[in-house]
Design a protein that fits this description.
Layout lengths: L1 H10 L2 H36 L6 E5 L11 E2 L1 H10 L3 E14 L6 E7 L7 E6 L8 H5 L7 E4 L1 H7 L6 E9 L4 E16 L8 E5 H8 L6 E2 L1 E6 L4 H14 L3 E5 H11 L1 H32 L1 H9 L4 H39 L15 H18 L1 H8 L3 H10 L1
Parallel strand pairs: 4-9, 6-8
Antiparallel strand pairs: 1-11, 1-12, 2-10, 3-4, 3-7, 3-11, 5-8, 6-9, 7-8
Helix pairs in contact: 1-11, 2-8, 2-9, 2-11, 2-12, 9-11, 9-12, 9-13, 10-14, 11-12, 11-13
Length: 409
Amino acid sequence: MRFLMASATLRRHPARTTLAMLGIAVAAALLLDMVMLATGMSESFRSLLLTRGYQLRVSPKGTLPFDSEATIDGAGAIVRALRANPDIKAVSPSLGATLTISDSRIPSAFTLGLEREVQGDYTLEAGTDITRADSVADVRAAGAPLPRIVVSQTFLTRAGRAVGDTITISSGLDAQLRTAARSSRVVIGGMGRFIYVPGETPVMALDLALLRQLLGPGFRDRMSLAMAESRLSDSASVEAVRAWIATTQPRVTAISTETAIRQVEERLSYFRQLAFVLGAISLGIGFLLVATLVTLSVNERRGEIAVLRAIGTQRLGVLQQVFLEGLMLTTAGIVGGLALGLVTAQWLNGILRDFPGLPSAFDFFVWSPDAGWRALVLLLTSGTLAGLLPAWRAASIPIARALREEAIG
């Protein structure tokens, strides 16, 4: 009965009720999006780092992975030491460089030298994977099969090439003589989605040994980064491996996933602060909308409420009816806000993902069931409580005075 009466009261002014519901829906959508932004970046970055299972990054001393052009010398000994540790399941060394492409629409491309069996930098989407070439001399030998490389979709589009084409890559280019110190013919064997490279960057992946040969003697035992996977995935085990690397390999910096997330959060703290501020504003908007509408409804029905009290309706009954109006209004707005919030989050995420320099797999807005539902329940509680004051005022209306004012008015 109370539910029917509260519903009838809200339907009495359909335009006003609809506008209030839309306002609450917008507030709910804003709150949901801000919660997704505040929690989504951390979750997205964690998922990004753990895409291939590697929980540790070994980079040059004092730097973040690929934060500079610094490389690690004596890479072979470091990788062998890591692989000899029984607590480490796999190690993936990589070397980054820029190589010249002499027969395509783009003059150069960022290049990753990897070991195919343990690489964790891309997922193959079409064609075949990279192949090993022991040296540039082997590639140049008569009848030797050309090594295959994997490139990104951006590379294919901007270079005007396709899977199966043959290109020439080189390093040590002399700008005046237009000659390269070392070069190699390779076949574009496949197309991959590179996890950590910005989507707008054309990128190639080839065998690590071949890239070292192309870069020259100074790079024959260097790497830019090594990723390591602990046999046990719990935080304590990963931290123990990280501490062991830090102790036994003083020339490098070992960074765990948790540490990397903290460092990235420090750089993106502005987004989190903005999300919390806008989320708090949305809560306040929802509270004020419900309080205003319910107060207007109570003021308009003072005489009606007085009549109900006069014929025996208890204060608790009036309190419950007005309280239900706020609950129903907030619930309807939140349902619409949930759908609106998810749609706008996808739209905003698409805009922010196009920001230069971000990995293509990074998301700003990520739906987290716990955080999302907790935020919506908080808004529901806020909106429902907003109806308490007008509900108490309605239950406390002086019966005689309200009836006299109704008769005179």
